Amino acid sequence: MPAEAKTAKTTKSAAAESAIPANPFEAFTMPMPSVEMPAMFREFAEKSISQARDGYSKMKVAAEEATDMVEDTYETTRESAFAIGVKALDVAKVNSDASFDFAKDLFGAKTVAEVIELQSAFARKQFDVLGGQVKELQELSQKFVNDAAKPVTAQVEKTFKDIKAA
Length: 166
Known about the structure:
Structural class: mainly alpha
Shape: elongated
Order of helices and strands: HHH
Number of helices: 3
Distance between the termini: 88 Å
Strand content: under 5%
Helix content: over 70%
Number of strands: 0
Largest sheet: none
């Protein structure tokens, strides 16, 4: 390549580079005129910010209270479910023990009349026991529902009081 062509190429390249400004976004930066914001707009903005902060504060408190309520309800539900489970196991043990005792008595029976008498006595006894067991489980379940509803009820009442106060 001749020296003149090389120099011309270098000159073109240097001219192209000098056309690109150091900051390519410089064309988009314009000086903004200094404008004083009217007092009314400033007051409106300050009031809006204050209301937003108050609203956020109230929402934060409500969210924390709702979280506490859910945690209380969950804990109560867990405890109640455990108590019902323990009671159900107790009922199953009592009924199993009664059935094994009945089977043992049946093996000791000598006549059909004695078997029928044992069967009748066992049926009456189990009917009475079952009635008591159902009543106990029903009371435990009712207590479970009432205890689980307490935190929710308290939160709803507090919310309505807060709404009336506002």
